[in-house]
TrEMBL record:
Occurrences of domain Reelin (ranges): 23-191
GO cellular component, one term: extracellular matrix
Name of protein: Spondin-1
Primary localization class, coarse: secreted
Lineage: Eukaryota, Metazoa, Chordata, Craniata, Vertebrata
Domain (Spondin) ranges: 191-384
Domain of life: Eukaryota
Cellular compartment(s): Secreted, Extracellular space, Extracellular matrix
Key words of the record: Cell adhesion, Disulfide bond, Extracellular matrix, Glycoprotein, Metal-binding, Repeat, Secreted, Signal
Amino acid sequence: PAPAPAAVPAPAAVVLLAVVLQLRSPAPSAGGRSDGYCGRILRAQTQGTRRDGHHEFRLRVEGDPENYQPGSTYRVVLLATSPAYFRGFTLIALREGREGTRDEDYAGQFQIIDEDDTQFMTNCPPAVTESTPRRRTRIQVFWTAPPAGTGCVILKASIVQKRVIYFQEEGSLTVRLCEKEPALDGATETPALECCACGTAKYRLTFYGNWSEKVHPKDYPRRANHWSALIGASHSRSYVLWEYGGYASEGVRQVAEFGSPIKMEEEIRQKGDEVLTVIKTKAQWPAWQPLNLRAAPSAEFSVDRSRHLMSFLTMLGPSPDWNVGLSGEDLCTKECGWVQRLVTDLIPWDAGTDSGVTYESPNKPAIPQEKIRPLTSLDHPQSPFYDPEGGAINPVARLVVERIARKGEQCNVVPDTIDDIVADIGQEEKDEDDTPETCIYSSWSPWSACSSATCDKGRRMRQRMLKAQLDLSVPCPHTQDFQPCMGPGCSMEAPSSCVVTEWREWDPCSATCGQGMRRRERMVKMPPIDGSMCKVEVAEVDKCMMPECHTIRCMFSPWSDWSDCSVTCGRGLRTRQRMLKSEPSAECAEELEQTEKCMLPECPVDCMLSEWSEWSECNKSCGKGHTIRTRMVKLEPQFGGVQCPETIQRKKCKIRKFPGRHLSVSEDMCEVMEKSSFCGVRSRRALDGAALAQKHRSSRSQGEEGEVVWGGEGEWAAAQISFHLKDS
């Protein structure tokens, strides 16, 4: 790597941030600035023990880009090489040449992926540190690149292991990224008219999906989010899989709307010699997972002088018809060589076959079909990528294409770098060593004797032992290695003494269903010493059978969420729906709506009463009393219902008639009569009017006897009643 600028003094080292983990410096006052505290940490570097962690620890930006796209989000990984580990760490991003003593010295913004593992440093918010000190071999965070005009950025990390701080200022714990030159959105570089490279080149394509709820939070579909199977090819200039401004083929439409690569692969294979390699990876469910849980999908492909372009696409789902991909990417250089490495951020594009504007829009074919175009942040207010200010869409994926081998005579005999020479030689000897870091082996044993005892082809073998498997979830392969050999009876001068490698694994079947073809190769390791051609097969082709092909009869959208219950309490029903995304067919008998019972808290039951009864008779036969009426409880209240009101009512009553006779008496007399027992006789006689009047005016009461006189001609005129007061 290039030496560090002289203007960057040692205090700029991020390792100093880790010192806070050991020194436990006191927090600043409530009114203090965070940048001052960060500066104190940086200046404290001389107080800790430092070691070179070049061979044990590494800071890596996913895809290993050399440049950053302003506003784009990148995954940053800090990892330890087995058997090393670390307990604490600190990670910052500084503008190149800055010391980190001011807020404006920091570039971009980190986002926490796992809060149980990482957090922002309390007293230095731009820095990321561990949540809990414990053994770990890797951490990862998102980093959103700063706006345009920031310039180069230095990502720096420090590692804490016990009381030792590992630091490598310009080594494996430091990554330098410079701002990417602006380019037209959605533009695909025009390939060279003619490729002048010689031989062939083999590449590995790796797809990193960054479409996640943290990076793209608006309306992110939590259910059924995924990337479809990636499909593409290395091909000639005369074949176009897809391109901006063109119309989607049926194969592209089925990928874009259904995530099905079958038709697309069929179209590719129909191009015959225009295609060199079909590129395929598996679908990813869910769309995003940490790399320690799921490796990024990859595929290998080859290019040559006539088929030096690479195109691919994959759908992000659920979506109307949105994809990411490359179209006609040229891997041939102007210097007649092969591109060594390509890193590209990908934004989604619209296939023009569906008019939906949200992730889960119902199927709505675009009539007439529209042209393929990149999505923009001003497309529609309901779009998940909408931005009223028209900012750039955050990339949803990153593609890394790495050259892993070159074969045949190369026009460009000057290698790109020394590492390039080593890489090519290593590939000729053996495919790239993909031994997991969690597997620890012994040294290889010496080669065994050739398996052939005569002058014939044979094999020899060497072995190694698995000493430790640090992660039981990661398999440890390659404990045996084989190499072709000739038997001891052969003369080295024999013109046919040609040594070849072992057969490689069969390539994937050319068909995903039904019958197809598969191919495998081997390489000549030692040609005959007389310069003659090797008369051995270096390629084999064989038939292969895949599961029976089934036409896509019915393609449905994911189920919607369940509706609200049809009632607000008690038992009800709820429903959910899905859309038929393929053409209607009589064979599509699957249901589009489902119904199920739902149970909410019981409904409240109010008290229920009968009607009021008639009023009862007065409870007194003479004088003041009361009368009542009642009603019955027909249903008791339940589950918080209205309680029962009164069930008995009373009202006053007053009677002034003599008991058993329709005679009015005074209230006082009623009281006397209530306390008395009485009996008497009556008589009648004729009186003249004057005598009757006199009788009415006279009344007497003597001792305990009394007389009441009534008058009226033709009626009982008088009655004499004797009564006795009851003993009180």
